[in-house]
Amino acid sequence: MRFFLLACALYPATLLADYSTHPRAPELLQKLRADYGFTAVELESVKAALRQAESLPQLIEAEQKAKEKTLTWDAYRRIHIHESNLRSGARFLSEYRVWLARAEAEFGVPPTVIAAILGVETKYGAYTGSHRVLDALTTQGFDHPTRSVFFFAELAEFFALCRELGVAPIQVRGSYAGAVGVTQFMPSNYRRLAVDFDNNRARNLWQMPDAIGSIGNYLANAVPARRWQRSVPLVVPAVLDRRPDNDWPLNTRTPTHRVGDFLRVDVR
Question: Is position 121 annotated as part of the catalytic site?
Fold first, then answer.
């Protein structure tokens, strides 16, 4: 018994939770039935998966402390912009130039942009995540203190995605937040924006052709009001004559200032 208690103390971060008995489990099952047309048999499979889910509270901490949320650009760029990643990017541009050219022709997104995204997301497919997505999304969807609404919806999308792909929920691995594939799409974006770019009758975001086409489609169609515009400048150089005020927001999801705002604080 002492050994068992010691083992529990050493490994507190992974717990069999049996999320099928969670107070919100009926809400999930009803959502799958009403919004996604799950049958009684399919709902039993969902309950079986929830019984196998593990609670991983460390994933909530990882989401809250994600580098893209907490680091400045100077610190963040060092993680991704270095010689090894640049060499990998050059190889990627060469190896997949035909697919990249096709994506640019169809969606207007340059090869270098698609390559840069894949380099940041998964180092060109070298790392697509080691966590079971089932565990990540049940933990965050049921237990996240501030973003459970988002992750709960993604959990429902995940079960729908698994049904469409014909895979068992316990088999899919991804990031701490439940993002999957070379592109690191969340399940809702996989279902809505992934494309069968190689025409093999499957949308497989672990394969590069589909990943390339899907990133192009994402940038072109994810948010119609901010869709990718062909040949419009993406980045312009800027010179700061003085440091901006400390209350300027950092790392926001959407732009907070226009060019005139920068000009007024001596940014050229």
Answer: yes
